[in-house]
Write a structure and sequence with these properties.
Elements lengths: L1 H4 L4 H14 L4 E5 L2 H9 L2 H4 L4 E5 L4 H4 L2 H11 L4 E5 L13 H6 L3 E4 L3 H10 L4 E8 L4 H13 L5 E8 L1 H10 L7 E5 H7 L5 H7 L3 E4 L3 H17 L4 E3 L11 H10 E8 L3 E10 L8 H5 L14 H5 L23 H4 L4 H7 L5
Parallel strand pairs: 1-2, 1-7, 3-4, 3-5, 5-6, 7-8, 8-9
Antiparallel strand pairs: 6-11, 10-11
Bound molecules: iron/sulfur cluster.
Iron/sulfur cluster (SF4) binds next to helix 16 and helix 17.
Length: 362
């Protein structure tokens, strides 16, 4: 694990921690945007190593968590139909809709299958021309290119029995929604390294300039995170607000051109509802007209429903950076990963699940 261990090097970690302590002179609030970063921060105790003056809050970067309950209900409606093979990555199967989850549909006889790639779903559609095969395409910009490629492949193969239930969301509009909030306290962001591997970081530059906020593209290992925090704190202390790239081993300013090309062909930007937060304007992707016959929502006519979050769940406050999981009265008592109430406990990547897993009870 050569290229992993060097980013967990103890001496390097201690050096960075020391530099962060020397650099920090006043309180700062920094948000990491990605659920993977949240887990690393809590798992490795990064938040305990840095000065108390730095408050780390956890952003809405867990794709499973922010998938609205209504979308889960639509998945359940489709998956329950007799001629359907409903395919999904495994993490969506236990996410509760209003009344049940995909595992329950499977237990009741529905043909719900876990796949490891959207292309597996395309292969199923080829193999079962008499059945409708639906893939649940959830996630941020990172997973979108593979889902887009599956739609392109289905079109090229002339498949008429394949469709995707799309629930893709975008990071920059979420950052803007947080910055626009009257209650915003976030002063700097760690942008998600893998999202920027696809999209680059050019699109963050107008945001950084408009809201005078440093944004540092950051990786996921302890050295990455500490270096990202240090770069953010340096900017804050010096009164700068630039977009900087800590994750240069993977991210370029322009990102991945071929991936962006297929994304532009297959998707168009639309408003999306985020679980726990509500609708954010122009914050997601839907299929373009050219690929609309692969849209499972249109094909199955699943109607728009509204689903409420439990009143005592504060996941929206957590996803906006106003509160942390252990400030929720239900955390670890009535709400646990086995019996999750809200967005941030439903997925292993969610902030509440991370706090629970690593025993951050207070
Ligand atoms: S602990 Fe549960 S109820 Fe509380 S915010 Fe997290 S998901 Fe919601």
């Amino acid at each position: 694990m050569k290229y992993l261990e060097q980013y967990r090097d103890k001496n390097l970690v201690l050096k960075l921690v020391d530099e962060i302590h020397k650099t920090t002179t006043q309180p700062w609030t920094i948000m990491e945007m990605c659920g993977g970063q949240t887990h690393s921060i809590i798992r490795y105790g990064i938040d305990k190593l840095i000065p108390n003056k730095i408050r780390l809050v956890h952003g809405p970067g867990c794709p499973v968590c922010v998938t609205p309950k209504e979308m889960i209900d639509k998945a359940l409606d489709i998956a329950a139909q007799e001629d359907v093979i409903f395919t999904s990555f495994g993490d969506m199967l236990r996410v509760p809709g209003t009344h049940e989850d995909l595992f329950s549909i499977k237990a009741q006889g529905g043909d719900v299958r876990i796949v490891y790639s959207p292309m597996d779903a395309v292969a199923l559609a080829e193999k079962h021309p008499d059945r409708e095969v639906v893939f649940f395409g959830v996630g941020f910009e990172t997973t979108a290119p593979a889902n887009a490629m599956a739609v392109v492949a289905a079109k090229e193969k002339g498949l008429t029995n394949f469709s995707v239930l799309i629930s893709h969301v975008l990071v920059p509009p979420a950052i803007e929604a947080i910055l626009k909030s009257d209650r915003n306290e976030v002063q700097g962001f760690l942008a998600a390294g893998h999202v920027c591997t696809i999209m680059g970081y050019e699109e963050y530059e107008p945001l950084s300039k408009k809201y005078k906020v440093p944004i540092v593209v950051t990786g996921f290992e302890p050295v990455d995170l500490l270096q990202g925090i240090l770069m953010t704190v340096k900017q804050l202390e010096e009164g700068r607000f630039d977009v900087e790239n800590q994750y240069a081993r993977s991210v370029s300013r322009q990102g991945n051109d071929p991936a962006q090309h297929v994304l532009k062909d297959v998707f168009r930007v639309i408003p999306r509802k985020w679980r726990g937060i509500g609708e954010i304007p122009m914050s997601g992707w839907g299929l373009t007209e050219k690929y609309s016959k692969y849209d499972a929502e249109l094909k199955f006519g699943v109607i728009d429903t509204t689903a409420e979050e439990p009143a005592d769940c504060i996941s929206g406050e957590i996803l906006m950076g106003h509160k942390r999981p252990n400030e929720c009265p239900a955390f670890g008592t009535s709400c646990t990963p086995e019996s999750p109430f809200g967005a941030t406990m439903v997925s292993a990547e969610g902030a509440c699940a991370a706090y629970y897993k690593y025993h951050r009870l207070t």
